[in-house]
Amino acid sequence: MVEAQVFLRAAKTYFAFLVSEFAFAELSETVRSVVFYELQYRNAAQVVSISFENLEDYLQITVFQLVNQQLPDYNDSHHTYHLHTLNHALSKLVGPDDWQENQRFFEEFKPEGTVERRLLKAAKELRVCLTHFDRLTAA
After folding, report:
1. What is the rounded CA–CA span in Å between residue 31 and residue 33?
2. pLDDT digits 0-9 by tens, 114-134
C-alpha cells in the first residue's frame, strides 16, 4: 500500500513537464481514504488524469480531449485516450532520437519503490505521446 502523500508528491514531480512544456495547470487532487488517489491537470484542450487504485495496485493515465470545454464521457473512444492505447499508436510514429531525448529529460529522477518507478515510466511515455499528440489522434 502506498500513502496518498507519497503518491501525489511523486506524481507531481514526474509529471511537472505538463505545466512547463504543455501549458497544463493542476486542476484537482483527489484522495479517497487509502483506496484511490487522483491528480488531474488541465490545459485549453485536454485534461490529464493520473490515478491509482491502491487496493488493486492499478495505475492509469488518461488523456481527455475536451468537447466544448467539457470532459467527454469516460467511454467516448473519440475523445478519451488511455496511455497504453496512445503508446501502441506511438510506436509507428517516433524513432530512436525521440526516445533518447526523452530519456535524457528524465535522467535526474531516482524513483524509490515500485509505484514511483511505474509513475516515472508513465511520465516518460506521456511526454512523448503529448509531443506527437496531434499525429497520434489523427492516425
Report:
1. 6
2. 999 999 999 999 999 999 888
